[in-house]
Amino acid sequence: MSLATEELRYVYAVCRPLDAPLAADLTGVGGEPPRRLAHEGLVAVVGPVPERDFAEEPLRRHLEDLDWLSDTARAHERVIAALTSVTCPLPLRLATVFRDDSGVRAMLQEGADRFRRVLERIDGCVEWGVKVHLESEEPSRERSAGVTAQDKPRSGRDYLRQRRSRQTAQEEGRQRAEAFAQSLHEKLSRRADDSRLHAPQNSALSKAPGQNILNAAYLVPRAHSEEFVELVDRTKDEGRDSSNLRVELTGPWAAYSFTADDADANANTNTIAEGADGTECPR
């Protein structure tokens, strides 16, 4: 069988020509080293993947296999992280696959204006993520108050009174948490080139304790990242005295949250492009 029918092209990212080489021992999806495919001033970072796993039907089945999906995502992110250490890549979505090199070149050609606009916007920057979680105050409050069996309600009226008191305290705690999160977001946004507010995470899915109040991403010049981190560290202490808040800082990442440029960024990724047909778009 020919190479074109045995192997497809997995595309990790689009970037400008690299000034420094990637590590010689870097491997991506399937344990294969990535390579650069240049076209008219843009570079796609690609790697070979087997058609038996990444053609449309087997890929659809694999995406329901959490172990396979986790392994593929880790390999994908390993390449993106290596790219981020030497440039500011525009990451593509997981499992962006083309039939051959000509399909990748067609993507670069057709998306050139969009890619260049996004690369210009994220040039010299990295993404930092900040989350604020409100953890339950009730256990700590009961421990500090020394709750005993004598504090249990003696009547229905006592039960309703205690329940209203807890609900009031919880609502006040949430309001303080939201005010803190809003203030933090405003301060961090002023120190960033751009910011994105994402939907709060579902704690049942994320397994993170507490209620997610803020889930934000910030595009920060790499040269100012240390100052940004110090600002988060200083500001997050302000919320600890008033409520049970936990501030989580992650990064630096490639600018995942800042790669969309137009409606085409929402195109379906789980397709195989042949030649100039059906090109894939960034996440």
Number of strands: 10
Order of helices and strands: HEEEHHHEEHHEHHEHEHEE
Overall SS class: alpha+beta
Helix fraction, binned, reads: 40-55%
Overall residue-averaged pLDDT value: 82
What global shape is seen?
A: elongated
Poorly predicted regions are 1-5, 139-147, 262-283
The N- and C-terminal alpha carbons lie at a distance of 33 Å
Compute the number of helices: 10
Portion in beta strands: 15-25%
Largest sheet: 6 strands, mixed
Question: Can you characterise this structure?
Answer:
It is a single chain. This protein is of the alpha+beta class and 283 residues long. It is 40% helix and 22% strand. The chain has ten helices and ten strands. The strands form two sheets. Strands 1, 2, 3, 4, 5 and 10 form a six-stranded mixed sheet that branches. Strand 2 (35-39) and strand 3 (42-50) form a beta hairpin. Mean pLDDT is 82; it is low at 1-5, 139-147 and 262-283.
